[in-house]
Amino acid sequence: MALRKQYIPTLIRFDEAGVMTPVFLKPDDRWRRIDQIYEVRRMPFLTGGSGVRYTIRVGREIGHIMYDLFTDPLQWFVEVEGEEPKDGAQ
To answer: What average pLDDT score do residues 66-90 get?
Structure first.
């Protein structure tokens, strides 16, 4: 099955050097704390484009949250199975 981008509200923190770190994300109806970041890596995405992928742990689940380097404004997303919505809705 094809993958698509599912955009996710994400709260980020900037340190004094301007380094951006995701702290919370909202994949459903509530905010969830990102408990650990294992890896931060620039790479191409399976859904097209390229950007930065964070390998994270939320509770017991390990996954990825990403942002595209070439979108403005910056939008965080996960890659999920399924077709792109026909009406352009996310």
So the answer is: 80
